[in-house]
């Protein structure tokens, strides 16, 4: 049974039902960002191999920015009159994806898997932008800015996975393990 997220009040100019739709949309984004933050730290802690330091140091600024994004989304939920559910239990109960599946692994293997993670997160933001754009330009703008940063982070990741000829090692991968395996073949 779907939870009614219609707030008792919201920002001026938005109907309560529309605010409820935005809150539901943003809750999913909040869970995705909190999950991404933890996944990035997991990679930071479990990366090994000759590219260790490059990936270890590349990931931390991404962690910081993703945490800022989560904070911005949570504050937008609150401004709309909703409750920002930031607990691990809410994340696990409401997410539609599995935990990151790679443990201690070569840096390029992690980047292969992370490429797929970024693809999923960015697609979720793109879908949310479409819905928010019909309701609220402020929420749409917030999401578009985040999408731009997430796509830049994915570009950083993909630079490690791309050949000089322009082919992407993870182009046809459908699972994190497959993408990690394809990435590891480059390492």
Automatic annotation (TrEMBL):
<feature type="region of interest" description="Disordered">
    <location>
        <begin position="168"/>
        <end position="187"/>
    </location>
</feature>
<feature type="domain" description="Ferritin/DPS">
    <location>
        <begin position="25"/>
        <end position="162"/>
    </location>
</feature>
<dbReference type="InterPro" id="IPR023188">
    <property type="entry name" value="DPS_DNA-bd_CS"/>
</dbReference>
<dbReference type="Pfam" id="PF00210">
    <property type="entry name" value="Ferritin"/>
</dbReference>
<protein>
    <submittedName>
        <fullName>DNA starvation/stationary phase protection protein</fullName>
    </submittedName>
</protein>
<comment type="similarity">
    <text>Belongs to the Dps family.</text>
</comment>
<dbReference type="InterPro" id="IPR012347">
    <property type="entry name" value="Ferritin-like"/>
</dbReference>
<dbReference type="InterPro" id="IPR008331">
    <property type="entry name" value="Ferritin_DPS_dom"/>
</dbReference>
<dbReference type="InterPro" id="IPR009078">
    <property type="entry name" value="Ferritin-like_SF"/>
</dbReference>
<dbReference type="InterPro" id="IPR002177">
    <property type="entry name" value="DPS_DNA-bd"/>
</dbReference>
